[in-house]
Amino acid sequence: MDSDRRPCFITVCLWVLATTCLPCSGSPSPSLWGQKAVFLGRPCMWQLGKERVMPPLEELSVCVHLCRKIATPEWTGFVYKAPGKRQVELGLAGRGGLLVAWLFGQEWSVPEDLPLEHWHNVCLTWSSNSERFRLYINGSDRLDAHVNASLPRRLAHNGTLTLGVSHNIVDGVMEFEDGKNFLGDISLFRMWGREQTAEELRAHSCADGNVVSWDTRDWYYQSCLPEDDTSLQCAWSMFKIKMKAVIAQRHPLDKPVNSPEDIIRKWLGTIFPGNISVRDIFVSSPSQICLVGYNPSVRDTEKAQESRKMEFNSTSDKCVSCLVYVSVNPETDVGVAQNEIFGKLSLAFTSGQVTLIADPSSLSVRPIGAFPNITASPPTDTNTTAGSPTSTTAGSPTSTTAGSPTSTTASDPGTPTETQQPSIGVPANPTGLSTTRESLDFNSTKPGIASTFYRVNMKLNMTTTVTGNDPGETIQKWVQRKLGKVKMNVVNFKMLNSTYKANDHKKIQELEMTAELRHEKRFRCTFQVEDADARNVTTTQTLITDLLSGNHVDEEIQVDRRDVHVSHIDPGSCPGDTHESFWGVYKWPITEVQMTETMICEKNRGSRACRKCELDGVTEKAKWAKPNLKACKPVITISDLDKITVTANNSADVVDMIKDILGDEGDLSDSQLATVVQKLDEVLWVSTVTPQLGGDIVNIIADILVSNSDLSAVANDILGITDSIGDRMDFPEESLNVTVPSLALSMINVDPEQFQGLTFGVSSFSTGLVPEIFVNQTFLSQPCDGTVASISLPQALHNFFPQGNKKKRVQFHFYGIQELFKDPATNWTLNSYVVSASVNNSNVSNLRDPVVVTLRHLKPKEKNDKVECVYWDIQKNNGSGGWDSNGCETLTSISAYQTTCQCYHLTHFGVLLDVSRTPISEADQEILTVISYLGCGVSSIFLGISLLTYVVFEKLRSDYPSKILINLSVALLGLNMVFLLDSWLSSFGSYGLCISTAATLHYFLLASFTWMGLEAVHMYFALVKVFNVYVPLYIHKFCAVGWGIPLVIVSLVLAIEKDAYGSVPSEASLDSLQGSEPFCWIQSNVFFHVTVVAFVLLVLVFNVAVFIVVLVQIRHMQTNKLAATGNKHCAMHDLRAVASLTFLLGLTWPIAFFTWGPARVPMLYLFSVLNSLQGFFIFVFHCLMKENVRKQWRIHLCCGRFRLNDYSDWSRSMMMGSKTKQNQLVHRSPSVKSVNTSSRKISDDWHTLPTGGLVYCSSTMRPSLAPPGSLAPPGGLA
């Protein structure tokens, strides 16, 4: 009964699959290739699906295609954030013409504004091992940054990723940030679990990511569905298919005839067209439970996709997991190939007694970067998270199938790598795993069936219907397409010239007439064929002939059967070989032809070395190719180079090793640098310097120059090496140029009889880039406009050419690195790049006619700056080298940007600048900027507290000193606030706003110094000129002067020339500490010196004079006081009074006049700290340390035992004053008015006490007998 019901059950199950999962035309592919997400005109959200869990990656590569449609100040490409975190873990955005990339919350930016209406491929790579973070734009390296070792070593696990908009997770709900949305199209977002190089990213431009792919099942989106875009086509040939398939047998009691892999292989071979060939198949052991699921064309956006189980009771029915690698030839657009493959596999297939069907929910078709090694683990029924860690086994080498790339991969779909990664370890006794190869031993590197090889010679006619195509390429693709149908591979294809025997003259005429009528051409070609299925030799030869010959309808290639000659060849195997190199010792085993062996790298065991056993196209025997050790690290270090003897045979290997070591080492120590330079010098002496070898050495020198290593000890050695390269390089041409970043060499072989002079120049150069050079075969006495550097050699130089048959060569060098030419014996600064010339590396001096050198200044020459033409003398400074001007004349500078020199010898030339002040390093400039902004911010806060205290508490502002202090605090607060906002306001680029900002800053600066001067005036009246000083409307006049004079000055500047204000570079700004941002300030030197420097200097001179007089007066008062009372002198109070007066009168500002020479940097630090914190010190001395202020705080702001009763301290002072009235030395003048009037005698309260009413050695200094409204001493005296 069970057997009778079994066919019906299978039919019902397959019907369920066909109706729920498979429409009649096949399910649509979930691939997004050829489609884009449109973020324009409506709310749009794309985020990583919840089913796709981001693994904790230790290295990664991310690529995304962006097409901006509308320009916005800020936009977001993508953002990945850790769970519960607000900082960006990984992201890409644009801001103000900059492209911004984030990693672990740290931000990097490059000056790149992606043009609108164009697709741009932007990639980010990072590795915790290399600690490098790189950004590529359209394949070009735009950022290579070091990642601080303190940052995380892994990408956060299970975070959230969004496209086109930033986001935050609040209470478990994702909220999107507005204002930074991307307006345009986004496509092809892919992530790999491995750091890829620029070459790999370009080579894998059409490969899908193995962590995040461009597939609907990886993304959750709403409101905006993906749209097709024909411009996103990408042709590719390598694909990976992963699926679960049900194999049902109609009669379950029958014993299965074929194995599951044979059935799968036959199925795929039947349904796939001829251009899709199966490369490898991996099939898991059959299971009685198979998960079948949803139709991928219908996305369930609210729930996770559900799956159902099909259980079978018969062993004849199987559910297997399959991993298939297919090749599409010729290459086809990824989206088209995916849809075709997906559609073919989505339909049920019946052959005889067996029915097969694939579950679309498990079916994925993805382009890959390279085919994997066949020793990898099989697919399993358990889902593997993309990017999960994998284990490796270091043992025997592994092999790939014929024709595979030389790099190895891990084929487990869960591994995060596609290329250059170790194979997955295989259990000792694997169960249920098989491939298309028979008797495959997973502990062996040998394939199950050895391939057979054939030589094919063929003549053909090709119709020239398509012009401009390479015939050889067209024929090769045609041959591969024909033979690829039966799983054959074409290797060593070669075109031959057509020839016929002499007695075939009549046949030739007939063929030529026919070809002319049909527009045909006759070709001959030869190639080898690999048959991986190892069929019978005779059968295979006939099969090849049948496939290639015959009249193929609608094809442009016609082959006569008699013109196809197929012969069997036996290439044998590559013998075992031990290869010793700087990357280790590798013992390559006996390997079949067209197989690639891989071995674990000796130094870095996480990578693989590979070597292919090739079929020689001439001898038709197996031979070893050169090992590919690029993924391996050298097993020796720079210190081991000393043990190597450089010979002509290993010199190229030594240079290659040095290149690799420098890539790993980074900056070199002095000893390491000396070793590298020594070995390069040895290479030059023992080798024939070819352009290839010379170019490699020049690249090494360029890498050394741009490093942070100290070059002073090897500067002369490096110059000698570059000279030797130019002198010894062997090249057949008349001239040869070698240019690398920051360095250029030009070598010209000259004819002495025709020598009319030479001119070498650099037309364009930027730091870190390759210079653009030119050579003119004549002497140019006048410099070329716009050149960075040029040197012209006179005709008289021919007298120094060597005699005899020795080559006559002139070489020029350009050095775009100043660090190579450091002279500790001079205070002058190198202000140009360095250019040199030599003749056969010989000494050229005392020329009859001068050499003309023109160099562009790195820093524009100011009016009073001195420049001098110099040359590099290798004998100076005890052989370390230094600059010398003997034999060179400095002509008048062409402009502020160029200087021309005349020298009578050949060497390395430069221009020195005599700077009158010590330059500020970038580190110091950044620190000073932080100090300035931080100090101004702190001062603003405490000035606000001071103002609030004096304004709120009326008793504190009843006297004149307090009112003057309030006005000074307002002026300083305005100065600090405008200074802090200046850079931000200037960034708007508004002309009117910048002028207003600059004028306001100018006004508050003048007002601050005016009120400092008025403080000095008031102090002079109060403490020095005590008697009979009467000033009507005293405080009103002070206000008129304090606020009016600055207003008049600023108004006059605006009236005379409003353009005197504007945006200026930071070097011309108020304190020269604003980095490289624009700063709104006075841009006219005349107005600056008259209205700022002269005004400030006048005020400070007056304040210093008053300060000295006041100190003398106070000292005199103290002496009298101590003599009368017998109290001891309190030094701390004297020091506090001096400090208080110093900040109140602005006596720290004169430090600016001492910021030059060797003490420039320390004085700038002192200036920035003291003056940016002036408001803070005023708060300390005039609020925090004043007893009456503290009492008001305790009365009004404190509670409990800290609170004071509200009584008048002034009344107590008046009572004390009445008791001592008989001791007054001088009575009040009759002209003294009421304290309530607005006019009073300035000395009213000071001639009553010769000591000024000072109470010494108490908690504060204050007037003890000063009634309200009197003039108490300012500063620390009040």
TrEMBL record:
Family note: Belongs to the G-protein coupled receptor 2 family. Adhesion G-protein coupled receptor (ADGR) subfamily.
Chain ranges passing through the membrane: 930-952, 964-981, 1001-1023, 1035-1056, 1086-1114, 1135-1157, 1163-1184
Region feature (Disordered): 371-444
Molecular function terms from GO: G protein-coupled receptor activity
The organism of origin for this protein: Hucho hucho (huchen)
G-protein coupled receptors family 2 profile domain mapped to chain residues: 928-1186
Subcellular location, record wording: Cell membrane
Domain GAIN-B: 765-919
PROSITE patterns: G_PROTEIN_RECEP_F2_2, G_PROTEIN_RECEP_F2_4, GAIN_B, PTX_2
Sequence ranges of Polar residues compositional bias: 431-444
Keywords: Cell membrane, Disulfide bond, G-protein coupled receptor, Glycoprotein, Membrane, Receptor, Signal, Transducer, Transmembrane, Transmembrane helix
GO CC terms of this entry: plasma membrane
InterPro entries linked: ConA-like_dom_sf (IPR013320), GAIN_ADGRG2/6 (IPR058857), GAIN_B (IPR057244), GAIN_dom_sf (IPR046338), GPCR_2-like_7TM (IPR017981), GPCR_2_secretin-like (IPR000832), GPCR_2_secretin-like_CS (IPR017983), GPS (IPR000203)
Protein name per UniProt: Adhesion G protein-coupled receptor G4a
Gene Ontology biological-process entries: adenylate cyclase-activating G protein-coupled receptor signaling pathway; cell surface receptor signaling pathway
Keyword Hydrolase annotated: no
Annotated Low complexity bias: 379-417
UniProt topology in membrane: Multi-pass membrane protein
